[in-house]
Amino acid sequence: xxxxxxxxxxxxxxxxxxxxxxxxxxxxxxxxxKRSGLGKxxxxxxxxxxxxxxxxxxxxxxxxxxxxxxxxxxxNFGCGSSREHAPWALLxxxxxxxxxxxxxDIFYNNSIxxxxxxxxxxxxxxxxxxEIANKKQLxxxxxxxxxxxSGNNSYFFEVEDSVRERLLHGYDDIExxxxxxxxxxxxxxxxxxxxxWKLLKNEN
Length: 204
Description:
Layout: E1 6-14, H1 21-24, H2 44-47, E2 70-73, H3 85-93, E3 97-100, H4 105-114, E4 117-120, H5 123-134, E5 138-142, E6 147-150, E7 153-156, H6 161-169, H7 173-178, H8 181-194
Helix pairs in contact: 3-4
């Protein structure tokens, strides 16, 4: 999983509330189990018309926001179904951080597990960043310093230590488990020594 330390980008403003996972990546694109290739269908129903042509006034179709790494969104981002394809699509498009006042729990956890940072800020701070995004000014999100800044505007944020460590080091679930491999092996050795009946033997 790619590490997240600092992201600096013009942010895309999408101040809609209750953006659900079906809006992020519609159900017809969930057939794949690959994490790549979903970015082209991110917010598909808002980005394209029925003929597949780009809708010019949608934010991600505008030149300044096509390569954005940060999304400034409204309340309750990622609600709806639990599809992990939602953070996959955001990441494949290039977005590394979504800023909102609140996230649906399952989306939040799926994002962390895939290296997408769902950053929670206060309402007035999100509104300020939305204005900055509309002005197309650069925003920097620094996870080491736990700070968002743009020009003279700076906001500090709280994040759980376990979440911060996972993102800073790029640990997925397997890598987190492997950090304890020595203890796991010690447990297995002791368990099989004291309870050998637990060890399956290959008779072939």
